[in-house]
Queue: 2 jobs
Job 1
Amino acid sequence: MNSVSRSRRRRLSAAAVLGAIALTATACGGGGGSGEGDTVVIGYTGPLSGGGAAYGENVKIGLEMAIDDLNADGVEVDGNPVTLELKSLDDKYAPSTAASNAQRLADQDKAPVVVSPNAGAIKAIQQINSGRSNFLVSAYTSDPAIVQADNPLTMMIPPNFESYAEEFSETAMEHGGKKLALLGTQSEYGQQWTKSIKDAWSEAGGKIGGDNSVDYATVSDFAGPVSKALSEKPDAIFVGGPSQPTALIMEEARKQGFKGSFLVMDQAKLDEMATVTKLDNLKNSVGVLPVSEYEDPGTEDFLKKFAEKAGEKKVPTSETALNYQGIAIIAKAMEAAGTTDDPEKIREAISEALPDVDDKYKVNGFPDEITEQGHLLNPNLEATFLNEDGKYTKVPIEQVSDEK
Amino acid sequence: MTLFIQQLFNGLALGGVYCLAAIGLTLVFGVLRIPNLAHGALYMLGAYITYFFLTTVGVPYIAAIGIAAIMLFIVGVGLERLVFHPLRNSPHTHHMIAAVGAMFFFQALAQAIWGADFRRMDTPITGELRILGAEISAQRIVIIVTAVIVLALLALFIKRSIHGQTIEAIEQDRVGASLVGINPSMVSMLTLGLSALLATIAAGLVAPINLLSPTMGDALNLKVFAIIILGGLGSLPGAIVGGFALAIAETMTATYISSAVGEAVAFIVLVAVLAIKPNGLFTKAVQR
Amino acid sequence: MNAMKNPRIIGTTAVILLLGLTPLAFAQENYAMRVITVGMCAAIAVYGLNIILGFTGQLNLAQGGFFGIGAYGVGLLTTDYDWSFWAAFVVSVIGTAVIGYLCGLIALRTKDEYFAIFTMAIGFIIFLVISRWEPVTHAHSGVNNVKFPEGGGLVDFESPVAMFYLVFAILLICVYTTYAIRRSSVGRTLLTIRTSEDLADAIGVRVGFSKQLAFAASAVFGGVGGGLYATVVGFIGPDAASIDKTFEFLMFILVGGMGTVAGPLLGSMIVTFLFELFQDFQAYRFIVLGPIIVALVIFAPRGIVGYLGGFVDKRSRRRRAEAARGADDDLDSTGASTSGGAGDHRARNLADGIESGAGRTGGTPSSEETK
């Protein structure tokens, strides 16, 4: 083989590859920059690839729907019509990538608001969002640590997850019995839930077996962990992680003869779970209320629009619905503050903007106040119990304070 | 005691899962010395294509697995031609990173086609068996049995058939093999294609007890490497023993110690074994 | 030697100068400063990988784990125990060195593929400990509000530019260390081991001890990079120690050029830049990035520095042929060859090594063939 010509061919190919990269680089670089005229970028950084991609996509759909609707209705700030534009970046669930993304959205796209749907990422973003850079974090996480950080530019959207523990425990105890097995997922959030349920359950006078938490994302076969949890002969089991694996765990438990009740963490949605397993396996469970069971003024239309956008088969979840509401609130706050580029003023104006938000954006338990630390509060929080007949009955939830 | 028997069966089923997933990798890593980190992605792709033929097209379960296996054979050959063949004289590092690149590509591709949502594959094999008070589903029994049969067939293929013998010849003496007229390039293609085909059979059987997602191969990837290294590179009996041993160790420690230890035990066992026997349990006289 | 005229030194210096001047252009761009500074932290860990993989030829897949230990050391000591950054940093680096040395004691008993997978298992165990040992590491909740380095009233490290120069200064030390190792007898010892352990053993090199040192040194660099990373980003989660980090580092070193002085830095910066660039494609970026990675590995197997080095070699060879004089200070003995599987490959490497030992640089047709 003529190795000299071969090495030259290699060099040429390498040069071609490098050249192609450089070309793409310039092509992409040109596309950046802030929008012209009255376009305001709403930033979003979430997991769009990797294990959390489905979750990140659900959030993104809500943001897109809200921005489409708001632009159709027309947003007017300080007398000028404003067009909202969504810019999404993928962080693969990694906090430091999320913070870099947020910084980029704030610096390059001049986004006054960045949405992030995971507690770790939000904590990393809170290191940079009020100081040299200024932007509001629209935080989709139920972890109260986000508001305990006293970050002046945070808006926390969902209810504090600790609110659920007491009512979930009582309901599950009533329909199952006193002995609880813990089989939640091994994520940050799953572990916080496990702890909160543990406390509430003992307070209500129940007994708790060992902690059988497993990482739902890496377990190849759920039979082992389920057998172990059932060996404690529990009357109720705490489960939860993403909807679909949670459904599989419940199915496996029923197959292995479990008759008691389930406490389902809010990350898993009962209606979404019903798409991968029979409803029979899910009965006798307490969990969060499916979006389709809400009776807010805008819910029905929202469901229709969602089906048009995402297909009939896909189940709308609170990730989509609550972020839909969240963007509507932010847009209204911009109008009230009369500015699109001062995040402090926007944050301040949220309180007065809340009552003015159009009814069509009230879809999933609309908040009527925002706490000083930035938590949106919905006065009538409800969860659900899926009974033996496969019907969702509502369970009112009393909200706990965000203080530690 | 019932718990112990139940977990023993669960462990065996998990061992079947690991063995099935490991077989293809043992071939490629053990025989060709290519640490194919994209193996998990091939497994994932196999699962999705099986799912596509089963659910979207509507062919019977076994046929769906068969069609997908053939398609993946072609993907495997393509991977060898486009990625590993140009790197045949490069050190491991290059293969590894190229395989990571291929893995990224396959995952993004699957997400672009099928979306990020979890999917469930239904199987016609239903029902449970009760043995000594323990409950085990028919699908899991199929997994255990298939794992053993496929491994046995593979061993037979390598010992008895011409193609298999060329693989073994390459494994034993690369230079000698090419001297007697074996085309190493053909063998590489055959081996990678075969490994992708085996990964698809594994995925078609295992996917119904879990879920489909673009990252479903990730969780298996690291463990499968641990298994084949534990057994000894290129050793098929080693892969069987390694797979079942690690799975039972995992299930039992998770049951009797804690689930966190259960998750780590595969790697702790690996570290412990290699610290004592640096070449794995079933070391063959491999060329260095 | 004639260092001032050596194109490699000129090139490396130019890259470093250029990097050192970036704050002039981007001081107001927090995003750019952040990405570059985080990239430099990774580059430091990659220099560690360069010692064990690039020089010694051992594929160490625990580097992400050591990076994580450094990061968590600094993170936990400055928050839960309220130490000053500097004390925490020094202790973390020493801690990483000790853990690295101990891991090396067992890991280096294994060879080749076994070593790679063994270190991968070590890295994964480190990750599992960090992500599961909740009472100490806070598991997935992560460590928040990691302290900035104390400036003693002279420097305010909360300023991104000051932070940049801190990391930059430490990076320079790493580059210089790499350069010094390459030129020293230690470096030659390591390169001999890479070429052939048997050969090294035969000529009286203490193979085990040298590998052990190289492994510990690479862990130390990993710890330094991790410790700085913790203070730069302020919040760390278990992903700081994940196996993905290791593969990221591998990608950096491979794109830059293994066993070279400038490679790790160039590779880290270029790949980081590529990843940020393709962010616009969101979830689909890997449909493009995946093949690019594969193409880079196939078409520029010795990395960018190795690739550029090829031109330099050609020129200097020509000049040397004219001068017809031998002795040569070999800065780049052709990046990439680690121990391979096949016998013929091994033999070629040996030949390659002997050739360079006899005073010919890489990029010769015969060495090109093995790459």
Job 2
Amino acid sequence: MLGKLDWSAIPFDQPIPLIAGAVVLVGILAVLAWVVVKGHLPYLWHEWITSVDHKRIGVMYILLASVMLLRGGSDAIMMRIQQAVAYQSQGYLPPEHYNQIFSAHGTIMIFFVAMPFVIGLMNLIVPLQLGVRDVAFPTLNSVGFWLTATGALLVNLSLVIGEFARTGWLAFPPLSELSYSPGVGVDYYAWSLQISGVGTLVAGINLVTTVLKLRTKGMNYLRMPMFCWTTLASNLLIVAAFPILTATLAMLLLDRYLGFHFFTNEAGGNVMMFMNLIWAWGHPEVYILVLPAFGIFSEVVSTFSGKALFGYRSMVLATMAICVISFMVWLHHFFTMGAGPDVNAIFGIASMIIAIPTGVKIYNWLFTMYGGRIRFETPMLWSIGFMVTFIIGGLTGVLVAVPPADFILHNSMFLVAHFHNVIIGGVLFGAFAGFEYWFPKAFGFRLDERWGKLAFWFTFLGFYVTFIPLYVAGMLGMTRRMQHYDVAAWRPWMLVAAAGMAVLTIGVICQIVQLVVSIRNREALRDRTGDPWDGRSLEWATSSPPPVFNFAFNPDVRGEDAYWDMKARAQQQSLEHGGPEYQDIEMPRNSPTGFVCAFFATIMGFALIWHIWWMVILGGIGAFATFVVFAWRDHDEYVIPAEEVAAIDRVNLEERRSLVSMAGTV
Amino acid sequence: MNLLDPQGPVAAANSTILVDSVFIMLAIVVPTIFAILAFAFWFRASNPKAKFQPDFVYSGRVEMVVWAIPALTVILLGGVAWIGSHQLDPAAPVPGTGSPVRIQAVSLDWKWLFIYPDQRIATVNTLTVPAGAELNFQLTSSSVMNTFFIPQLGSMIYTMNGMVTKLNLRADNEGKLQGLSAHFSGDGFPDMMFDVNVISPLAFPDWVATTAKSDAVLNEDSYKKLMQQGIEKGRPTYRLDDPRLFDLIATQHIPPGPGPELASEAGRSHSGGHDAR
């Protein structure tokens, strides 16, 4: 009846996951109870859960990423403590638990923190920057988000029901095959990623289409803000790379469920094929994450320097070059597999070539600052912190792209330090910069600067104190994923890294405090102009938060930095002409399709993991039926009458009239 | 296990390339970081002396330079990578004094088996080699992937079931080193550290002779016991019964090691192995 599921799946003998699970469960129930008792449920259902508004979906993506950041961060804290204490002892985490933690940490941080954070920011901002009313496929957008949430839910379910993979975040066979990992851990991993992978692919298709097909009048490709370009590049990579991940995991699942032999030791299975395929997705994935971050920094550095981006065309070229070359370097993840020197050298050099456009980007940001009037508000701090940190990560990255150096650094703590250096210093700093920068746009009030700066400094310093020791440990021969060790030389560095983790944790706490303080002081921090930073692109041309239709009139773009241009010429038509002709606006109707579809996908995923076949069929039929019902819909749009548009827009105009006239005199 | 304290020519070359590459890049990276901080400081909004140039958004000359700097660095490093990859190909022999020593390493769950086919002996978790001699390793795995790595001797290489990888090293100085697996392989992974005893070439034949007198014999049966999942705290040594044992493992004539539960299931078929190269 319930497949492999029975009471033994609940780890009654392991207090840590059980207590953590119980705390989370109580937390969720408490929030749910509060929502129901206070009568917020209809609001949540109509305004958020079923919303197809790209801004709402973007915010939900970022919320998911933030919650998962706490989960992944807790894993990180546990790992740092384990390696600090497990010198000549077993530490406090047995191997079967420690191995789950580092696997979950990697999986969560990449798939459920970094990905939803950048996709959320792209969702929130790109249609605004393009001057349009929504993304290309609003309901599909909602489906994509909820499927990502399903994946996150399944990963967290493994904490209390069953186990997570103990194989590392890429689940290399043959270790991940049934013979060596007979438990449900790898199945949790693979099905979570299959389901959320569909969500990511959907988001990618949606955003590519949006950038290619929905741009406001005059928004040529070479007038798009840099963030739109990096969004395009990143989502092209998603569309090209995620099917590889899906196919690879499908093959692994066929091995595990139906006795296939794609990657087994026996019957001609080939583990080297898995290595190639997973990294053919895995390397572009790195750029899927970091390209949007580059876009964010481009926006922030330009805005806070009070200048247009230096070398815009160069930046576009560099972005697209990275997009293409990132597909040609995957082999550098396994130079040590025994490929010949020609193959290794070619892939090593190809990997270094990516450093050229990346270096160009750094220099262009540098020259954007040159001659600027730099304001050191929180987003700018994250950007400068990024530039300094990312260069160091780039250096160590190029170093491990040199095959003979990689022969002694591969899989070491040096490598661990390198990819944290680029992912924290690049993607996470970028996500935080974007969060601070666009928060006022999403919610209509700024974040508290003092706590924001504290968060930056603690995170920045904490990063160095944590990861420089890991570089050193790598130089001392320490390899990754050690549950315990006996080498005295590694010990002090593990202790310093643990201390660094404490500093990082303070940084995260400051971030949370910042959010709480800002919400409490929101009236004082209110942004009535819609343009709190003296911005340059179109998202600042509308109110904060923007109305559901974003713009009462589709803006007419005459050059790069569209809004700056309008402000400088005081030429915004709606301001010039006193009473413009407002028109009815058609907007897509909210739809529960995404939520219901994900609900059935969750059931199906859980049932697949536990081999509960009747439930698999139930979930599958449910998800399919949801699609059919949606496909048969009669009305998918509703009309906002011109009077309502006018009423909303006039309020906005009053607020910013003074601002624009001021900016016009500059 | 310090990578910057190499004990053989391969490790020395690896670490030289590592250090050289770092210095080549630092020549660019340090000024760039300095420029970032300096520009950010000088062009702060509160500095009245800084000249505001909002129209400085394109300069062909600057663009030339910013594309050229990373490009030139990469051309230089690309050369290092190309030459280094060829000179330090793990499969290329490393000449030494005396006759080369052939060693066949097998990663087991979770220990290392070292077979000396010419000496007809085998050891677990201890690798004993003569200083200065050419060491030819052939490597495979009994089950999951691992990586054979002695940090102070240089270059690591994967071990994979049904395949043979090649590695050539040389240890120049007598002494004790440590090796490990550098690819996660399951619960016993951290206990896959092994000792490396580099002894004098004169003492090596004596060590071989002593080991050959060992009571334990390594044959197919004792190998199958050894490959069961578990951690080996001791340092057992064996007489080698059949010098072709490694080939039997690598070609899967001895089926892959069992996992935690499905011992009888594992290795139903005996398909031939592939060569990793």
